[in-house]
Structure formats: C-alpha cells, structure tokens
Automatic annotation (TrEMBL):
Annotated InterPro entries: AAA+_ATPase, DNAC/IstB-like, IstB, IstB_ATP-bd, P-loop_NTPase
Descriptive protein name: Transposase
Sequence similarity: Belongs to the IS21/IS1162 putative ATP-binding protein family.
Lineage: Bacteria, Pseudomonadati, Pseudomonadota, Betaproteobacteria, Burkholderiales
Biased composition (Polar residues): 260-273
MF (Gene Ontology): ATP binding
Alphabetical keyword list: ATP-binding, Nucleotide-binding
Biological process per Gene Ontology, one example term: DNA replication
NCBIfam families, sorted: IS21_help_AAA, PRK08181.1
Source organism (scientific name): Trinickia violacea
Domain AAA+ ATPase residues, every copy: 104-236
Amino acid sequence: MSTLAYDAGRLALMLNELRLPTMARLWPEFAQRSDKEGWQATRLLGALLEHELAERAKRRIERHRAESHLDPTKTLATFDFGMVPMVSKAHVMALATGDSWLEKGATVLLFGPPGVGKSHLGCALGHALIDAGYRVLFTRTSEIVQKLQAARQSLQLPSALAKLDRFDLIILDDLSYARKDQAETSVLFELIAERYERRSLLITANQPFSGWNDVFPDPGMTVAAIDRLVHHSTIFEMNVESYRRRTASDKQTGRRRQSSSDNHQEGATTMTG
Ligand code: ADP
Ligand code: MG
C-alpha cells in the first residue's frame, strides 16, 4: 500500500456517519479498479456518488411503495384494457406520467358497477405514479373517514389533513360505500375541500354522482363536493360486465379474448375550468 493511502477503517466510519451506505459498500472494489486502471480521482469520486444517488432514488421509491398500501399485483401490466373498451389506454398512459394533472391538483373519477376493474385501474395508476417519483396513498374511503373522524374527536383534524398533504395523490376506493352515519361530521367533505386545486384525488365509486346523496350529510354539501371534484377532472365510466363473471364464463366456453385497446374509442370526459 502506498504511503498516501487513507485508513480504510476511518473511511468506513465517515461514510457511515454521513449515511452513504452504497459508497461504503462499493468503495473498496472501486478503489481497487481505480488503482489498477489508473482512473483520474474525479472519475472514482463521480462513479461512487452516482451509485449512491441511484440507490437512494431506488430506496425512496421502495419507501413510497410501502407507505402507499397499493396492492402489488394490480399494475398496468396486469390490466387488460381490452376488457374496458371505453377506457383509452393512451389516455391512461398519459395520466400515468402524472405531471400536468397532479400539479394542478386535478381529480380522476372511475365509475362503474362492481367487478369492472375500478380498484385495479386506480391501483395501477398509483404504481405508475410512484415509479414516476410521486407519493400515493391508497385507502378505502370508509377507512380514511373513520381515521379522520377519530382525529376530529381529539381536535386533531387540521393536523391529520395536513399530514395527508405529503401525498400527491390519495386514492379513495369505493366512495359510495361510505355511509351517511359515518359522514355526519363531514370529514370527507373537509378532505375534498382541503385538497381542492392543490393535491389530487382519484375516486372509485359504484354509483355516479346521482347516487352520492347518502355519502354526505346534506344535499348542499353533496353538490359542493361534486362541484369541486368535477372542476378539473377526468371521468371514466366503466360500464361493462364484471371482469370476474366474464373471465369465469370465458373459461367455461373456452372463448379467447384478444386484448386490444389503443384503437378503441375514447370514453373519458375531461373537464377543466
Ligand atoms: P371494482 O373495483 O370495479 O369492483 P376490481 O378492480 O376489484 O373491480 O376488479 C375485480 C377483479 O378483477 C380484480 O381481481 C381485478 O384485478 C380483476 N380485473 C378487473 N378488470 C380487469 C382488467 N381489465 N384486467 C385485468 N384484471 C381485471
Ligand atoms: Mg373496487
């Protein structure tokens, strides 16, 4: 070893102290190569830092995925767009990049009867947005309403809502199952109003707006909530037969479906104001 060599033990300690685990793991191998191949010092430093940054980004996305509560199996790759011809794959792929709609806090609404893939599609968008660097929370609507109600009871509602601000997107699954008795304290409305034009929501519901009267305490609040949600929104009406039922009957009759999607008619409504 040359007399200019640095104490390896101290190097490890410093990298640990600075929380640079990737550099701590890689430097011995990189340093050896660098010595052997006569790298410039900047090349060695640059290579180590780039690995540290790449690993850090990967860990960050893993953390976001873990906190999202998204079902890991419900992704765009496992979603068959051929089953919902009114949902344009191209449109969904554009939403999956996030950029423009998340920045203005716009809403995506997925309507349709049970089993048509609303939760799956919502989840799939969530995964894609996490891959793109955004933070997403998937929750059943009734569950988040319960949590926010508990927060309100202990006078913590504002801070609970503020904590949810870290999510670029909250997916409220099954809005129409949130019951009126739950809604009495209107926390769902407060969540919608709080995020309006700032932070996005994706909502799945078995019933379109006409069936939402049971979700909010009074008709005035229902109208006010819908008004905010549709202001900047994309609505997909997924009025097809249940995927489970169709795949079950496909298996029985041995029919094969060809999954094609990009050439289908656009069935989404985009509203901006
Ligand atoms: P919904 O939320 O509309 O009630 P789900 O998203 O829970 O329906 O879908 C029911 C089941 O069918 C899930 O296992 C889901 O993964 C599957 N499924 C539904 N639609 C599709 C689709 N287009 N491609 C692949 N799987 C689908
Ligand atoms: Mg569902």
